[in-house]
Amino acid sequence: MSKLTSGSVLLVFFAVLLVGCGGGMSSPNQPPAPNPNMVQASLTIHDNPPMGVTVLSFDIDVTGAELQPSDTSKPPVSMLSAPEDIELEHLQTESALLASKSVPTGTYSSLMVSFANPRMTIQNQTGSTLTLGTQSCANQQICEFSPMLNQSSVTVEGSPFPITLTMNSPVVLKMDFNVDASVQQSDLSITPTVSVVQIPTMSSTGQPAEEDVEVIGTITTIDQTAHTFKVQSGMNGPSFTIATDTSTLFDFGTSCSAANFSCLQTGQIVAVEAKMQPDGSLLAFQVKFFQPPNQISFAGTITSVSSGGTSFQIVLFDEEAYGGEMGSFSMGFPLTINLATSTTFSTDSGGFMLPSGLNFASPADLMVGQRVRLHPSGLPSGMPPTVTVTVDQVQLEPSDVTGTITAINTGSNPQTFTLGMLPSFFQNAGIMSIQVDVLSNTQFESEEDQMMSGLSSFKTGDTVSVRGLLFKTMGSPTMVAEKVMARRISPGD
């Protein structure tokens, strides 16, 4: 079997100024006046995906995260109010916020994280049939299955623990979930292997460090005066208060031409990209509308395109906007998409000015690896695992790709670099490299959240994760980079 490279889960612990009465809880992201006995703590999660045997979707429940006090007479401190179902594949350059709650000050010797119910969708590229429990997965087939979880919890100790949490003293931790070490080569069962690094409280520019986080969920309340709103993640997940300012970008497409705070309505499903501030609050830099009221949309990654371009296959990305009368499909579910005669194509540029010559206007522009949002024109047909949906709208959305820089051109306009050593998913489709266009507003950072000065900070041989719009162009595809994240090499890689 092909070797899997490392993946990671990001856990951010943020200790900040908070008040409350001994042991009482505050509302998420709403720190009151100081109390020397309590601090605010927040968790986020992300991924750096494997190569080789392609994992198209990796979904797992984070059932617990407990800080273990150095004073063994004190009970562990739970960070989660409820289990969180997390899909990791799309979180290569972003982080999903799991929790934000008050915890006692003090010294903690370790962190115990618990997992359950892993689900994977893979493309078998081993050249032979795989046996996955009671399932068989033929060569080149895309298969959805539930691997065995060999170990349900992991205790992380040693550096950077022990950690002392004090009032008004922010602490940020990132936990790597090493997919290479966690996925067993013999049967693809899961033995979670994790490590933790501490993130500096100040950035390299001397400014307070800010963690990028993603919150996907339903708007439950809106405060027109304060220009804040609350989002509940998932069906029964925690609620987070999101602040906005004049710099917040509202990406509502044609659903709301105002493109400002007035577009928000309770009941909308949105994806919020936010900065976690030093006080633990969340400030949105983009609010993206997932679906118009009383309409249905769903998103996925293209895994293959028919020779005529009239149909293609996806692996389902989000299930929150896809249910009800359309049926119930899990994250990672494979779907066949047929294009209606009048299908329209559009691009979610997110405020980026795209270089000329990049188009997404017809079936000829579809390619493997693109993330697309779709609007169905009718009900699904067929039975699992062969389900077909006809759509009349296809919108190109940012994809995440991890690979190795094989060439850099800082003299071109725009500047570019070549991303090689791509996941075998691309290589199997004949795509050996991707040209990455770097724009003036492309973000560069490291896994430790240190901002980097630009393309000059990188060199050939560096492993990076890139988020951006992926276009089918002559020769190799072109990706317009929204963010480039430098990956550190995990032990054992």
Structural notes for this entry:
This protein is an all-beta fold and 493 residues long. The chain folds into 4 domains: 38-199; 211-289, Beta Barrel (OB fold (Dihydrolipoamide Acetyltransferase, E2P)), CATH 2.40.50.140; 298-397, Nucleic acid-binding proteins (OB fold (Dihydrolipoamide Acetyltransferase, E2P), Beta Barrel); 399-486, Nucleic acid-binding proteins (OB fold (Dihydrolipoamide Acetyltransferase, E2P), Beta Barrel), CATH 2.40.50.140. 2% of the residues lie in helices and 46% in strands. It is built from 2 helices and 30 strands. It has helices spanning 179-182, 424-428, and strands spanning 38-45, 54-69, 77-78, 84-87, 96-104, 106-123, 130-132, 135-137, 142-145, 153-157, 163-165, 172-177, 194-199, 211-223, 228-233, 239-243, 249-251, 269-276, 282-289, 298-305, 311-316, 334-347, 371-376, 381-383, 386-397, 399-409, 415-420, 434-446, 463-471, 478-486. Strands 2, 3, 4, 6, 9, 10 and 11 form a 7-stranded antiparallel β-sheet that branches. Strands 14-15-16-19-18 form a 5-stranded mixed barrel. The protein has a 5-stranded mixed beta barrel with strand order 20-21-22-25-23. The protein starts with 37 loop residues before the first strand and ends in a 7-residue tail after the last strand. Mean pLDDT is 79; it is low at 1-34, 46-52, 319-324 and 489-493.
